[in-house]
Specification:
Elements lengths: L10 E5 H11 L6 H10 L5 H33 L8 E7 L5 H15 L5 E5 L7 H6 L14 H12 L5 E3 L2 E2 L4 E2 L6 E3 L4 E5 L20 E7 L1 H19 L8 H5 L2 H24 L8 E5 L5 E7 L2
Parallel strand pairs: 2-8, 2-9, 3-8, 9-10
Antiparallel strand pairs: 1-11, 4-7, 5-6, 10-11
Helix pairs in contact: 1-3, 2-4, 3-4, 7-9
The protein binds adenosine-5'-diphosphate and the ligand CC(C)(COP(=O)(O)O)[C@@H](O)C(=O)NCCC(=O)O.
The site of the ligand CC(C)(COP(=O)(O)O)[C@@H](O)C(=O)NCCC(=O)O has 12 residues, from helix 4 and helix 9.
Length: 313
Amino acid sequence: MGDNLAVTRNYYQFDRGAWADLHGHTRRTEITDADLQSVKAFNDKISLDDVRTIYWPLRRLVYLYFKNYRQKRQTLAHFLNKDVAPSPFIIGIAGSVAVGKSTTARLLDLLLERTYPQLTIQTVTTDGFLYPNAELTRRGILDRKGFPESYDMGQLLAVLDAIKAGNQDVAVPAYDHQIYDVLPMSEAIHVRQPDILIVEGINVLQLPSNAQIYVSDFFDFSIYVDANPALIEEWYLDRFGALLDTAFTDPDNYYYDYAVGNRAEAFAMARRVWRDVNLKNLIEYIEPTRSRADLILHKTAHHRIDEVDLRKY
Ligand SMILES: Nc1ncnc2c1ncn2[C@@H]1O[C@H](COP(=O)(O)OP(=O)(O)O)[C@@H](O)[C@H]1O
Ligand SMILES: CC(C)(COP(=O)(O)O)[C@@H](O)C(=O)NCCC(=O)O
């Protein structure tokens, strides 16, 4: 257990059984067949056993922290003797490219929505804050996509600040993996003061040098999705294969030329990109942020979670 996990002593470590048992002690809401069906409909590759064992207790922990956050806001209003603006509870999800951040984010979003239909939940990703390809090219860093300098961090901080301040409608730019670029603002996602906002991205726990404020300052809870890099490479290549499968009918797709060309060469290119860009980024800039997370989900083969680490303090 925890083969590549350098957790320090400020984490409680749980194997699957111990984590699932925690929920057993506090269970109020049963997971229903309809809940599991909705997960299947969302992504039929997700293990329902993991949903029961790992994500259901996680959903409950998040809800407890959320209630505590609301309580704290009320305490503040009481102390100030005036209303304070509603402010979303923000969850950050970090980890390597292709480790499963966006799947984890959307799964958590779905489970929270199903269990607490009175709450509004929204999920956004930080890849919309990458500079557009034209700008990356102008700066000579197109091959550094995903590295800290490829993001407009000032813009990301400004957007999170507006959301946390309780603004009614905040536009968050979106990224499209198929066109491999940021979309125009007409396709932005509108965050409309949800109760809970999930923010997912490789950079959400990073501390850029000389910054006065960090993305994580806006988080009320953070999760790092962790796995052995050799496994993540497999998942990256699987996803690349799936992108090729959808790209060959669409000449506008960034992967079209690879999709209609020689498949072995396309995969050789993807392996190079993994090694020279995404793995490098993981080792240099992403993995060092793991020890800042409140919770670490450690995955093994087939995305099965074998260990959960929860921050003590
Ligand atoms: N729990 C899971 N079970 C099965 N497949 C998963 C799971 N999580 C992610 N995947 C698959 O792994 C690949 C990478 O996941 P994704 O969520 O796109 O990663 P990220 O957002 O970290 O880049 C995708 O092909 C996705 O379908
Ligand atoms: C957009 C990304 C930086 C971040 O992606 P994500 O974690 O959302 O998959 C990444 O998917 C990416 O495009 N990396 C650059 C190299 C490449 O994989 O093509």
